[in-house]
Please model this.
Amino acid sequence: MATVTMPQLGESVTEGTVLQWLKRPGDTVALDESICEIETEKVTAELPSPFEGTLGEILVPEGETVEVDAPLCTIDEVASAAPEAERVPVAAPAADGAAPELAPAPAADQSRADVYSPVVQRLAARHDIDLAAIAGSGRGGRVTRKDVQALIDEREREAAAADGIPPAAAPLPLPEGEVVPTPEVATVAPSGAYDVVPLSATRRKIGENMVRSTTEAPQAWMMVEADVTGLVDLRARERERFVGVDLTYLPYFASTVAHTLTDFPELNARWHGDELRRYRRVNLGIAIATERGLVVPVVPNARDLSVAGLARRIDDLVTRAHAGKLRLEDIEEGTFTVNNTGAFGSIASKPIVNHPQVGIVTMERVVRRPLVVEGDAIAIRSVMNVALSFDHRALDGAEAGGFLAALKERLEALG
Model:
């Protein structure tokens, strides 16, 4: 009998809600087959089964929220499907009536160490990792996601040490006794003057994370104005021949941000406990407002994609975010975030840093207005504000200002 527990779907996630059971007691369950749908403040995702067999008892009913690692259900594993190395050793009876001795387990090379889940395969492919070279810590030597992540973390620590990047100061703790406030929701209105709105797990956790980010990180903000007339013309020329996806300004902006981060690695970073890590790859988070709340799926290696490639990847993430079909790997390992507040008509905003990242930048609405050009001449130009919020523990205004200036120069050169 094996037990399936609530996974940690994203950094800082402490609980999840079972939205729907996709299997019922007695149903056959294949390895990595989805058994239920789970919602957290980060993502709504289907949970793949880590075992093969028959679904036993459902321990958490639909709609109930439980903490990470809480038991969700049991699975009666199929004995014939389990290789020898994964079976429980059989106790051999002793002839003299003494305590039985356990039969020796088969060698590790007879295990399922060469069988990898889709999540493990995708994570390994993303980081160019040879799974066959990893000694798995799972049952029968199976390589788990934690094994792969441990190797990734070790590589990054070694690379940082080779580059001479010093350890950063520890993040500021919450003041003693301070807790994240949880709003109280009345169950009955004393009059017909208002409706009570229950907070979903997503909405409640978004609020808690925003409080945490603004409490832990001393955030600073600055904004520049960019003449994007060339970008407007470029997009108009390419939009008609672009097939399959509506070409917006966002892919151009995201591509420009990703390439600018190459020269400003201070912003392409994340906190890991008291350690600040600067990343070589740009895994760009794209803030998306959905009916369930704000989510930030990630485009891995965004710098390696063309504008067309970014447009298709972003469109796919937006579509699945609204449908509640994002996967765990879609929200992991973001190193910097882009927010398209201009889509709502905003011309200036102050975004909150997506902790544990250290920076977030917005593209505001493109507007046409008179602008001084080439000396004292005045022309009607397309102008866009670009706003940056950053964690002042990780960098200072000089680096942040340099990044915005370089981003502005790149945007104005498009076309």
Q: What stands out?
A: The chain is about 25% helix and 25% strand. Helices lie at 118-126, 145-162, 201-216, 229-239, 250-260, 307-323, 397-413.
